[in-house]
Each structure stands twice: as structure tokens, then as C-alpha cells.
Amino acid sequence: MRSKMRLTVVIPIWNDPAALRGILTTIVGLRGVDEVIIGDASANDDCAQIATAAGARLVCCAKPGRGQQMNSAASMATGDVILFQHADTELRQAHVDSLLAAMSEPDAVGGAFHRKFDARHPRLMWLEGWNRILAEKGGTLFGDQSIFVSRDVFERMGGYRAFPLMEDVDFSKRLLNEGRRVVLDPPITTSARHHMKRGSWRTSLCNGTMLLLFALGASPDFLHAWYYRNWKPRA
């Protein structure tokens, strides 16, 4: 079953050609990746040119918004499993192998990878162990953990909701209702640039506050406006 399973990688991108070039350079050499689709909402053609030069399929989106970009790209997918990949998060052969092995189990509907940060900053390392515990106990899976899902399940769920923020949190919660969710090793390395730019504790406080407000019923539109008013990166 594993040899027959087709994997589609979906990458949403917005004005970040350097990150897109880096991830595509890696992905094109990975065994088991059958299709790469870019959901591009950039203001210029830089990302589109990089995508087509790498042999990826391209879906142009009218405006940025990860949920809608991922839905638009996923609507073109032909794979049995769809992996939603942030451009600044790594993807190695070991991750693809682990994903295909896990999703070959008939009761697995989707999941993500455990996470580590690419900057060995001592104030970030405590987050890794804490996130591992929460994820294994049914906690939130975030977009930079490379969420994946059976295409049939994704379509049954109606895809991501078109939220300006928290689309991954909402999707992760709904995925728990679809069947067995897996969280895999090896850990996936995600960029720590936001922690470095805003400060580790400031970013952690922001993220925790946003999750709490969302759990209490705050709308994604309100959180989006509040976030960019109060938590934008320092100059």
C-alpha cells in the first residue's frame, strides 16, 4: 500500500521567494513526493517564476490568507495524502518516509510532525519538550509542524476555514473528530525568525494569549486586527 500511495505537497507563499527557492530545491529530490502545488498570493511574479522553474504546479490567489491559499492549491491535488508545508520549515527524506509509513495504516487520517527550532536559542528549547507532550495528548497541531491529511478526509472536512488567523488551530481541532491522528518523528525544524525578531518570551506570550482568546470564542477577524495592532515585530 505504501508503494502505491501518492503524496501531494502544498505550499502557501506570499512575497518570500528566498524561502520558496530553498524548500523547492530540497523537495524536488525527495523520493515519494509525487506532486508539489504552490498557492501563491504574492504581489509580483518572483515566487511564480521559482515555482514553475522547479516543476511545481502553480495556483495564483487573489489575496493572501493561508487557509484560502491552501484550499485553492489542494483543490488541484491528485495525491492520496496532502502535506501542507510552510516554506520556511524543513522537509527531509526521513520525514517523507515516516509520513508514508504512518499513513499506510488504515485507521490513520492525518497528523503532523513534532517540532524543533533551527536556532539553538536556550529560551526556545523548553518549548520543544512541552509541545511534544501536548501534541501527543491531542493538543493543537500548528501549521509549521507540516500538517498532513488523507485527501478524502480533507474533502469531507471541507478543507481549511478561510480565517485570517487560526486556520491551523481550527483544522487541528476538527481533525481529531475524523479518526486516529498521528504525530511523528523525526522532529521537523521550523524557522525561529519570528522568535528572534520579536523576542522569545514576547512571542510565546502572544501565541498563548491568541490561543486562549480563540478558545474563549474570539473571532479570527478580531484576533487578526488585534495581533497586527499590538504584536507586530519591533523595528
3D architecture notes:
The structure is a single chain. 44% of the residues lie in helices and 19% in strands. Helix 1 (17-27) runs parallel beside helix 2 (46-53). The chain contains ten helices and seven strands. The longest helix has 16 residues, at 200-215. Strand 1 (7-13), helix 1 (17-27) and strand 2 (35-40) form a beta-alpha-beta unit. Strands 3-2-1-4-6-5-7 form a seven-stranded mixed β-sheet, with helices on both faces. By secondary structure, it is an alpha/beta fold. It has a single domain (7-193), classed as Spore Coat Polysaccharide Biosynthesis Protein SpsA, Chain A. The model has no long low-confidence stretch (mean pLDDT 88).
Structure summary:
With 235 residues, this protein is α/β, with parallel strands linked by helices. It contains ten helices and seven strands. A seven-stranded mixed β-sheet has the order 3-2-1-4-6-5-7, sandwiched between helices.
